[in-house]
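Example 440.
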Amino acid sequence: MLTLSVIGTNYLGATHAVGMAELGFNVIGLDTDERKIEALAAGRLPFYEPGLPELLKKNLDSGRLRFTTSIEQISDADVHFLCVGTPQRRDGNAADLTYVFSAVEAIAKVAKSGSLIVGKSTVPVGTAELLIAKIHQINPSLDLAWNPEFLREGFAIEDTLHPNRIVVGVQSDLAEATLRQVYEKLLAEQIPWIRSDLRTAELVKTAANAFLATKISFINAMAEVCDVAGADVMTLATAIGYDPRIGNRFLQAGIGFGGGCLPKDLRSFMARAEELGAKEALDFLSDIDSINLRARHRMVDLAVAELDGNPVDKKVFVLGAAFKPNSDDVRDSPALEIAEGLAKLGANVVIHDPKALDKAKERFPHLQFSDDLNQSALGADLVLHLTEWLEYRELDPAELGKLVSRRRIIDGRNALSPAKWQNAGWTYLAPGRPRFDAHD
Ligand code: UGA
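Predicted structure in complex with uridine-5'-diphosphate-glucuronic acid:
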């Protein structure tokens, strides 16, 4: 049985480490952040992901999963999974590769001869080849493969243990054979296996995220047109989605995409294409980015209009802070940017979220948060539904209506039923849809 190490235990790494232990491997997770490692070793996840805490505990208890901050402890592993972050650089659109390079150098110094380093982090095409050069300067017996990760927050376990494809960029048959051993149980489920060169594997990930972002911005562009034409984007999306060539997923119009992946991957992809001399090929992605950011601004404008053009001292109750439901991730969260935009215009904004409040407070200490939904709804002039948690979709509009001072809701995720809110005396608005005035 192979022994595996996972370097970087953020979202991706922690999930991968747990997933690999669940497949039966002995896994050691490494991070330089002592607090994170302490928490994981004690069975506490530093982020919210449904089902993962139970699996973490199960695999810690089995003894197959360990965590450490000491790089020497990973030296016996046969395969080292590189899962460190590649955030957007502060000085531009490109990805910051500092962590990737320093982690690879540290691994190469301690890894046993003949072991395989496997990149899972999202990197600009060509990075793996630079890393190989660095690795071989330190230990020429090591090999590098690229095995991009496609997991979605909120579905992390499902996507790790039952992915819809496995892509491996390799330079040798031996590396492919080792990865086949790692994923043997998944291959038994007939999950498609795609072998490629390193560059293609790196590109598959960025292309997939760029395509998903494009789909979302496409429907949000349609929402803009629907708004001026007086049409309904929800019906439009349903109708075009029946064409299997289009498909109905990722066509949910609203305030657009956020999170730690799609926005920064889009920008880093454009930056890399420009470096490679193919700027024009990806120029359209800058429109995808603009449509996405415009969806947030349009929501602020719509809210201001519904506050009769004057948000000063009006109470706005925001449902949702996370960038999407079933996650406490607030990186580049559309909900928070909209809340902040309205607060800056003088509105009295109170934000509720079932899971993301701690992280939201850390990032936006100047905004007002509350974990008491009913209390924060009291006297609201406007309700904004910005992250479609199940508990919001199940809200009773009649009950909420008793607390607010004005029954007016903007559904930034097009996830509520207009008729249900209308029948309870609310005016319902959403991007790309006609106005649904309250039924008396
Ligand atoms: C995304 C990709 O979906 C994963 O395949 C990829 O592995 C991951 O990035 C990554 O690069 O690590 P994630 O960021 O977890 O996953 O979230 P998504 O489910 O893609 O949602 C992204 C954003 O798009 C959210 O803010 C969501 O609310 C928004 N969205 C999604 C829409 O506005 N409309 C839709 O129809 C779908």
